[in-house]
Write a structure and sequence with these properties.
- The protein is an all-alpha fold.
- The chain has 2 domains: about 130 residues, Orthogonal Bundle (Rna Polymerase Sigma Factor, Chain: A); about 120 residues, no CATH class.
- Helices cover about 60% and strands about 0% of the residues.
- The protein contains 12 helices and no strands.
- The radius of gyration is 26 Å and the shape is elongated.
Length: about 260
Amino acid sequence: MKHYNIQGYIRHKKDLELELKRTEQDIVIDSEGNVDYTTMDNDTIIKMWMPLCEALARKFATSQQASGVMSIMDLISEGYLGLCKAVRKLDRQTLAESEDTEKTIKSFFAKRIRGAIRRGIDKNRGDMRIPEHKLNEIRKNFGKDKKAVAMFFNSIFLSIDAKTEDDMIYDIPDESEPYNQDLLNMYLMSLLKSHLNEKEYEVLRLSYGLNCDKHSATEIADKIGIEGSSSYVRVSQLKKQAVDKLIENVDHSQVLDYL
């Protein structure tokens, strides 16, 4: 546990404890003994969840190299700003329908509080301002995660056309444990439906044989209405386009079990 011998921080802790005690009378409890967030005002919810800002801020390093010139109080303040913005975006109807309201609201707030603190650190770290989307790319293992996703989808879909029958005699037997084909097919179809348009979805589904027999490029062109002598080329283009879209949009954690 970190200890901060900062006068402002110690005073803040005492003030927060007093404010939380005063807030207890404004907390609404439903008939089942749970906190009813649907009828409480924003100010009360903010005060209730202020300790979460401190808990998350304490996980960030405060050395100069790590956070620029930000102290623990600066980090907590950034967290409070993120909390205030998150409360304004809170969907009370979603909370009312949630099976675990506390878990739902904590997850919603924590993500936005961490984001606010990170943005504060990035803004104060140095003179050069790096765009947030580039910082997010750097945080994701310098693109290694995306390479893993690319390896998965390329091996599943693009490798279908990569070999001829003559090449098969040179294959080294794969002794690794095979995928559960039915589970893999169901999972792939859910990913395809989430990220692809109808034509891209059909091209990958028919080429891989998801819930059907595998089809050649010419057969796929006939099924999806692509005409002309080079229709099979357009099918190949659609397949590559669909795979690239999956690589761009699917997080590595979604295919981790299959890598």
